[in-house]
Amino acid sequence: MVAHEYAHAEAAYRQGDDTAYMLGRLTLNPLKHIDPFMTVLLPVMLWFASGGTYTFGGAKPVPVNPRKYRQFVRGDVIVSLAGIVVNLILFVVFGGLYAVVGMMAGALPALAGTLGSHVFYHLLPPGAGLKYRQLYMLGFIPILLISWLAPGVITLFLWPADRLMQLGLAVVGGFRIVAGAGS
Fold it and tell me: What is the pLDDT of residue 122?
């Protein structure tokens, strides 16, 4: 989430908007991007309410002022796409890392338990590409309710992310660490 928000701030700055910079939000410091509700309270509540099977969260949106862009339309498109591009880059990087770790586990079965630990699991994005655009406080509630109460409906909206995930798994899925390998 931090990289996604930083990308919006950096893109806005390069397009002429110094709003995020002036507010100290042009940073990779996660503390600057924490939203008490979206980053802390909501994920914890959903985790406990679902018995540890579902969570959802977000970062504090980076403030931008499109009127400061040198070219309004061009700047607005670039800033909007910056977060998505970073998500895709992270998807490729972590997909490659997933494959490398899987190959290492295959070559060194004794390390498989360590390579598949919860530490590695938490380094991966929980749903690569799930955040195609910035969700605002009023915009996320319907999506949250639909995804929790009618999970099949949300797949329609997340179809592009699902296709990308399926493509990534088709490429690197053969390298996954099988539970109990090396034990």
Answer: 39
Question: Which one from 1, 3, 4, 5 is the annotated catalytic residue?
Answer: 5
Rg (CA), the chain: 19
- 10 flagged as catalytic: no
**Cα–Cα distances in angstroms (integers) from residue 77 to residues 69, 85, 154, in the given order:** 11, 12, 25
Residue 35 to residues 31, 40, 82, 120, Cα–Cα distance (Å): 9, 7, 20, 25
Structural tokens at position 147: 């995804």
Average pLDDT, 10 consecutive residues per value, the chain (183 residues): 93 97 93 91 88 85 95 93 91 79 64 48 43 45 67 66 78 68 50
Residue 176, SS3? coil
Distances (CA, A) of 54 to 51, 81, 85: 8, 27, 26
Token pair of 74, please? 């061009």
